[in-house]
Amino acid sequence: MIGRVTQSSMARDFLGHVQSLQARSAQAQNHVQTQKRILAPSDDPGGVARATRLRSEDADLRALHETVGFGLSVLGAQDGALGEASSLLTRAREIAAQTANGLTTPAQKQAAAAEVAEIERSLITLGNTTIGGRHVFGGLATGDAPFVSLDDVAFDANNPYGGPTDPFSVRTGQDGATTRLTTPGDEVFGDSILALENLRQTLLAGNAPTAELDALATAADGLSLEHASVGARSRALADRGQEILGSIQTAREEIGEIEDVDLVEAILDLQRLQSALEATLVSGQTLQQSIVDYVRL
Amino acid sequence: MAIFAPLSIGRSALLAHERALATTGQNIANAETPGYRRQTADFAAQGGSQGFGVRVIGVEQSIDRFLEAQLLRQQSFSAGAEMRRDILDRVQELFPVEGPSVGGALDAFWSAAQRLADRPEDLAVRGDLLSRAEGLAARIRQTAGGLARQQREVDARLVGEAEEVNGQLGKIAALNDQIVGAEAGGERANELRDQRAAALLEVAKHLEVRATERGNGSLDVQLESSGVSLVIGGDIQKLVVDAGPTNGLDGNPLSSVGVRLTSGVVIDIPGSPGGAVGSLLTLRDVDLVDRAGELDDFALALRDSVNAVQTDPAATDLDGLVGTELFAATGAGDFAVTLSDPRGIAAASGTNSGDNTNALALLDVRDAPQATLGSATLSDYYSSVQASAGSAARLAFDESTVEAAAQSSLLGRRDAVSAVSLEEEFTDLIRFQRGFQAAAQLISVSDGLLGDLMGLVRG
After folding, report:
1. Which domain holds residue B288?
2. ipTM
3. B114, B417, B429: residue with CB nearest A297
């Protein structure tokens, strides 16, 4: 209820309205220029807390995605090596089959032994495959090669592997989710190397390697199984990578929904406030009306 | 007894209307004087068994005492709320939405830890983790430093507030003496009272006060919450700001605000003094301390959880040695990285330097609920501290808006009672001008009649 009106009360009211509109107009301008509705935590404390948590998640997801890429490259290197190893073992089994019949001459057996030695050396080299200086069958450690060379005096076919015995895993999700990248080398190639060495020794001794046929078959199956496991883990990791990309997208969209301003709405708001401001300023003319202009004393 | 009744009546009318015109003139002249309250000349007819004319028996101010008291209280609320809004707005800037923040630095640290778990033997990756740790430590220290600096600034403001209050109290006391002297003759000293009321309103911005007027016109002022006197007649009891018993976040003493009594003893102000001073004290001792405490809790939880992994007895660094602590701190203010050699990061468990088991354990800390943080993860806790700072600022902003509206409304109501309306004054000018002219006519007529009378006597 307006009682007695005075110049000072009219001026105060007018200024109050103008300043309030100016402040709201400045805020609206800010929104249009930055396209953000949140510029400080006080603008929306709950929203800011959510956005900060989402940003944190986004950073983690991006780091996880890098890990997925790394994991895929390690598994890819293993896949290649295991493929070649399988071929080598196939050739060794052919040699064993051929020399197991009684028709092979001692000289042929010696030649076969030499070829098996080469196969062994190649397999050992595959066992020492590296990626970025790290041994893919040696727990991804750097340093000395995990498999001892055939020509080394320390070579022992029963124990050819001197590397780490624990698998290497990487973090691929929150709350402790990991993916195993490596299998210890002795588990992958141990059987194969022993079988090949036994084959070689049998041939060098001039005997028929009938006993070694089964051992070679078992070793070959073992390699196949590991190869399949690598393939499966690789596919799972690739799927996880896609999932992560999706989550990153979602997180960014959610952040946008919280923080971004609807530009059309913001511009309309600004226009509305500026019209109101103009109207208020025009109404200021009434401040000038006074009895002083009309009364001549 | 007048010589000639109509003449003396006319004279009284002339003087009264002249006084009224002067009062109207005073109103017009002071229409825009802050704190000026409109004055009205009170006419009273004089007479006993017959009329003796008119007298201005006093010039009254249009004042609603209840409204004035309400306005005094509201001034304290508004000033206090504005102070809170100001300071809390600055505090929330330490927890920004975008740009460098503790939260962002923590995320970068965890990303570097993720890379370490992939490549534990890579010196560049290890170096990167250390540098992210340094970045995080720096950001924590900076935020803590910002809070400490804010607290120190708030504390320093108390000195300025006390000075302003004491200045105004001095004015009130001096005006008390002047008013008592001026009103001893029986007339109210309106202009002096206006000045005193304005000084009191100024004091109310800084402290919540109440004022009681004595019979002789002197105004006593006391603190509202505790009744401690600030002005007693012509004497004042000043606010004193001295180094107090507690230290601030920066380790240096905080001030305590007291009142120096006329006896010379300085007493503490019991309870909250209200107004801007009250707000400053609450901000300094509660809000800022709470925020700093939360940041300390965060820093110590970070230190302990990361160090526990780094110094695990089964964990080894690149040279096969047990790890040493990564972070050292007594709180957020001195949070620092104590490991300088990247080789010292204990990423492995056991003798294989290519192992990453301990690096994976470090990553588990990211998602681990922290017992000292109410089972929140480190990241979630930081975001809740940020939200707290934002909520406090939001609340302060809203409260200050509400108080400002209340103040504006009260000022409007006071204006309706006490402010000058030029239309009113001009109308009064016309009235009193006519009255003056009529009184002059009466004198002229009386003079003529006297002349006629003299003529009769002279013959």
Report:
1. 69-293+386-407
2. 0.92
3. B429
Pick B92's closest partner by Cβ from A41, A60, A139: A41
The DSSP bridge pattern shows strands B219-223 and B229-232 to be antiparallel
Terminus-to-terminus CA distance in chain A, angstroms? 33
Q: Can you give the pLDDT at residue B314?
A: 95
Q: Is the Cβ–Cβ distance between B306 and B137 less than 8 Å?
A: no
Residue B346 within a domain? no
Number of structural domains in chain B: 2
In terms of Cα–Cα distance, which of B171, B193, B199 is closest to B180? B193
DSSP string for residues in A134-194: EETTTTT--SS-SBPPTTSTT--TTS-B-S--S--EEE-SSTT-EEE----HHHHHHHHHH
The per-residue pLDDT for range B249-259, each reduced to its tens digit, is: 999 999 999 99
Q: What average pLDDT does chain B have? A: 94
pLDDT score of B1 more than 70: no
The verdict on B104 touching A (C-beta cutoff 8 Å) is yes
Same domain, B394 and B440: no
Q: Is the pLDDT of residue A225 over 90?
A: yes
Same domain, B108 and B138: yes
Q: For B52-76, what is each residue's pLDDT tens digit?
A: 899 999 999 999 999 999 999 999 9
Do residues B183 and B256 both lie within one domain? Answer: yes
CA distance A167 to chain B (A): 9
CB A62 within 8 A of CB A55: no
Nearest chain A residue to B394 by CA distance is A42
Residue B344 falls within a domain, yes or no? no
Based on the domain organization, do B16 and B80 belong to the same domain?
Answer: no
**Cross-strand partners of B247:** B253
Q: Which residues numbered 387-406 in B keep a CB inside 8 Å of some CB on A?
A: 387-391, 393-394, 397
pTM, two decimals, is 0.90
CB pair distance less than 8 Å for B411 and A49: no
Q: A172 to chain B: nearest residue by CA?
A: B114
- Mean per-residue pLDDT for B341-356? 93
Show the tokens assigned to A78: 């293993």
Q: Are B365 and B359 in contact (CB under 8 A)?
A: no
Q: Do B111 and A62 touch (CB under 8 A)?
A: yes
Partners of B388 on chain A (C-beta within 8 Å) are 45
Tell me if B29 is assigned to some domain.
Answer: yes
Chain-chain contact of A40 with B393 (C-beta, under 8 angstroms): yes
- With beta carbons under 8 A apart, name residues in chain A contacting B356: 140, 168-170
Q: Does residue B142 sit in the same domain as residue B242?
A: yes
Asked if the Cβ–Cβ distance from A292 to B108 is below 8 Å, we say no
Q: Is B190 found in the same domain as B126?
A: yes
B139 in the same domain as B82: yes
Nearest Cα neighbor of A215 from A233, A199, A236 is A199
pLDDT at B70: 96
The answer, yes or no, to whether residue A297 has pLDDT greater than 70, is no
* A174 vs A67: CA distance, rounded Å: 13
> B168 and B106, same structural domain?
yes
Q: Is residue B365 part of a domain?
A: no
Of A39, A62, A168, the CB nearest to B97: A39
Single-letter amino acid, residue B23: T
Q: Is the pLDDT of residue B248 over 60?
A: yes
